[in-house]
Each structure stands twice: as structure tokens, then as C-alpha cells.
TrEMBL record:
ATP binds at K194. Coiled coil: none annotated. This is Protein kinase domain-containing protein. Keywords: ATP-binding, Nucleotide-binding. It comes from the Eukaryota. It comes from Steinernema hermaphroditum.
Length: 445
């Protein structure tokens, strides 16, 4: 129904579409509430279309509005007008959060998705919720599979490299390369093979190899096994790990981890960073997706991964490199420390700020700037947010950790032992000794 309505609206000069989630044949109570609100806000609207596209769950809707108020307005202004209306009027009542990842352009208007976090406009059955979650996971898996298939595999299934390692199948891929599951024909050990395309200069993967060789034997760091080139593509072979923390968090019903799990993750990754920094390097891309758990029987060990963005901040003699006047952006916007947004040199402290942001997301389910519509807005929230507000749901030791690292300069070396102790106190506030991680017991907080 909505698709044909949008086709009708597309040629209009000033159409605004807002997408939520269901698709009933006639207007439901939730659809009527949304439509009435928009009708009150935009009394001159020629057309208002609302469609529940969540299979009747009332958790997501698609909305289209044509109004004279949008004449002469830029798309950003149109988006803001509708967004503010829904945020102010509905969000407080029903817990709606704007999902800017789903931003879509439609004609001269805008389209974006809304989803319900805490409440719902109308009730839904548990069966419908379960069905919606199932279909959402299927769509996400399909998108990932399609993305992986869009670039031809750099290695062939069954191929043998270095006369020892068999390529089983591709398990992931991105802009910087592909990762394959493999098997060591001598030890029968499962392993990961990371490959860079031939058109890359190979510096990232070579740098990762050199650092992993230097860190061999260090806890919470994957073990490097081999390296080389095949058909012009550089590759490294390392131990195979399990899922990353970002995916594991999303598998939790609450979309977050228990406090004990978060602080133990903090301890493991602080140890990993101590090893990396001790070698004179900074990671520069700390985030939950770059931390993986081990395979059985090491599911209770968290490993730091993806060292393709590391940079040396100190030479082998212990001398600090000179700080650059301008440093290009490195990392991921959501978890990037303030120094990165300011294009300043990154040091060990910036990895720990990335760790802090990661722990807040894993504990709270989202960061305070998750709903920011632009990078500029995100930067402003980061810059102006008080440490106490960032850690509002955390024990006092987390506030102490945050304040201590925000007070450091880029070339200062953090007190890893003290940080580890602060996390230990956080764990002690909630549970006894050595509790299982959430993914070990199959449930979170």
C-alpha cells in the first residue's frame, strides 16, 4: 500500500516521507495516532500517508507528508521539521527513537525510520514480536551475504597455501580485504586467513603482521602463524576467533551486557592495550567490533583484533615521535576520541577513550550521541557532555576511570594497573569471583 502511495507522492515538489514498521490493510490505532499528530502539526498538508510495516506489531511505521510548509525548504530543514514534531510529541509518550541509519531520499522530501524502544503506540503479541525479530535477522544476514558476494573471493575454497593451510570458505569481507576460515593440515587446527587485494599496497597487512609477531605470546592478542603473497595478494594466517562483542551484544534480549561482563571485558582489553602500547604503537580503532571472544574452551577470553590502523608513537629506543600539526581521521566516528575529531595526534590515552565509549555502549545499549543526525552534531555532543552524564549509569569507579584518562595528554602513558583495579572494584560491587560472561550462560542483564 505504502509503496504505491510513495510512487504517487514522488513527483510532487515537496513530499516528506517518514518510515516506521507494519502494513495492515486498513488504518490501525497506531497509524491513526501518528496521522492525527502530523495532521495537527501540518494543517495545510495535501496528503498524509501512514503505514505500519512491522507486521501489525506497532513498532515501526512508514509515513509520507506533502505540505506547503516545505516550499523553499532544504531537505535538511524538512527533515528537522518532521523529526522535531515526532520527537517532541510522540517520543516522550511512547519511547520512539529516530533511526537515522535508515535515512532515504524520496523526491523533494525525506524518508526516515522510527522504531519503538520502550513503549509502543499499540499493543502487539509476543508471536508478532518474535516473527519481526526473525525477519529482521534474516534481512541483516542477507545484506551481509550480498555484500560479501559483491566482491569476488580472493582465495578459492579448497585451495592450499604455503603447502600447509587449506582454505575452507570466506567468513567476512570489507573495503580493506577478506577473511577466510582455514585449516592447518599438520595440526588440524582451525585458523583465520586475512587477505588484501592486489590493488592495495599491502602496508596495512604487513604492519599488522610485524606487530603481531612482536606481540606473539602476549595475552588477549591473536597468535600470528604465517604470512606471504598469493597472486599478488598479501595474506596473514592467525588463530581463528569467535564472534565480536558488537554482534554478541545485539544477540542479548536487552541489547546490552551485564555490568560484570562489561568490566571484565574492560580488564581484558586494558591488558591487550598495555601490550600494544608497550611495543610503541597505538591501535587507533577501538570499538566492540574489533574485540572477539575465543573459540571453545576459551570463550571466557576477549581478544583485541584488527591492527591495520596502528601507528608507532614511540621508537624502539623509547623516544616519542614528534606530534603532527594535522593528523588525518582514523578510526570509527561513533567511538573516536575528541582528539581525532580535532585532527590531532593520537596517543595511548585515545585508545582508552575508545575503550571507555565501547564499554558505555556495551553496558547501556547505546551511546548518548547514537541518535545524532550528522557528524557535526555527534562531535558537539561528545565535546559538551559531562563525564558524570556519560557515566550516569555506572559506578563511581567508572567515573574515576573516565576523568583520569580525559586528563591525560596524547604522549602520556596511562596507569594500566590502576585502571585494572578500578574495573575490579566495579565487578566486586555486583558479583562474586569469576562470574561467567553473558554469552557463556546465554543471557544478559
Amino acid at each position: 500500500m505504502l509503496r504505491s502511495a510513495l510512487r504517487t507522492l514522488a513527483p510532487l515538489r515537496h513530499a516528506v516521507s517518514v518510515r516506521l514498521c507494519s502494513g495492515a490493510a486498513q488504518m490501525s490505532a497506531g497509524e491513526k495516532k501518528i496521522a492525527d499528530l502530523l495532521r495537527q502539526r501540518f494543517p495545510s498538508a495535501a496528503t498524509i500517508v501512514v503505514d505500519d510495516i512491522s507486521g501489525g506489531c506497532g513498532s515501526m511505521y512508514q509515513v509520507a507528508v506533502e505540505s506547503d510548509e516545505f516550499k523553499g525548504k532544504a531537505k535538511v530543514q524538512q527533515h528537522k521539521m518532521v523529526t522535531e514534531t515526532l520527537q517532541k510529541e510522540i517520543a516522550d509518550m511512547h519511547g520512539i527513537v529516530i533511526n537515522t541509519k535508515s535515512l532515504i531520499r524520496v523526491g523533494f522530501g525525506v524518508s526516515f525510520a522510527l522504531r519503538f524502544e520502550q513503549g509502543e503506540v499499540e499493543s502487539s503479541s509476543a508471536a508478532n514480536k518474535k516473527s519481526m525479530t526473525h525477519h529482521r535477522k534474516k534481512r541483516r544476514h542477507a545484506r551481509r551475504s550480498q555484500s560479501a558476494k559483491s566482491v569476488p573471493p580472493l582465495l578459492n575454497d579448497g585451495e592450499v597455501i604455503r603447502k600447509r593451510y587449506t582454505v575452507d570458505f570466506m567468513i567476512g569481507g570489507g573495503g580493506f580485504g577478506q577473511i577466510f576460515k582455514g585449516t592447518d593440515m599438520v595440526t588440524d587446527q582451525h585458523l583465520a586467513i586475512k587477505v588484501e587485494p592486489a590493488d592495495k599496497d599491502g602496508r596495512r597487512i604487513k604492519l599488522e603482521f610485524m606487530l603481531l609477531v612482536e606481540l606473539r605470546g602476549s595475552s588477549h592478542i591473536p597468535v600470528i602463524l604465517a604470512s606471504g603473497t598469493i597472486r599478488g595478494c598479501s595474506f596473514i594466517v592467525m588463530t581463528l576467533l569467535g564472534k565480536n562483542l558488537s554482534d554478541l551484544r545485539k544477540e542479548e534480549k536487552s541489547q546490552k551486557f551485564s555490568r560484570s561482563t562489561v568490566y571484565r571485558i574492560g580488564q581484558h582489553l586494558t591488558t591487550a592495550l598495555r601490550h600494544v602500547h608497550g611495543s610503541g604503537y597505538v591501535h587507533r580503532d577501538m570499538k566492540p567490533a574489533n574485540a572477539c571472544i575465543g573459540l571453545p574452551p576459551k570463550e571466557n577470553v576477549v581478544y583485541l583484533v584488527d591492527f591495520g590502523m596502528v601507528r608507532q608513537f614511540r621508537d624502539k629506543a623509547g623516544n616519542m615521535r614528534r606530534s603532527r600539526n594535522y593528523a588525518g581521521f582514523r578510526g570509527t566516528v561513533r567511538y573516536a576520541p575528541p582528539a581525532v575529531h580535532q585532527r590531532k595526534e593520537m596517543g595511548p590515552v585515545d585508545d582508552l577513550i575508545g575503550l571507555l565509549y565501547s564499554m558505555i555502549e556495551l553496558s547501556d545499549g547505546a551511546l548518548p550521541w547514537a541518535a545524532a543526525n550528522t557528524t557535526k552534531e555527534l562531535e558537539a555532543i561528545k565535546e559538551n557532555l559531562r563525564t558524570e552524564d556519560l557515566c550516569r549509569n555506572q559506578p563511581k569507579e567508572m567515573v574515576q576511570f573516565a576523568k583520569s584518562i580525559f586528563a591525560l595528554q596524547w604522549d602520556h602513558i596511562p596507569d594500566y594497573k590502576r585502571i585494572h583495579g578500578l574495573f575490579e572494584k566495579c565487578i566486586g560491587d555486583y558479583v562474586g569471583d569469576q562470574p561467567p560472561f553473558d554469552w557463556e550462560v546465554g543471557k544478559g542483564a
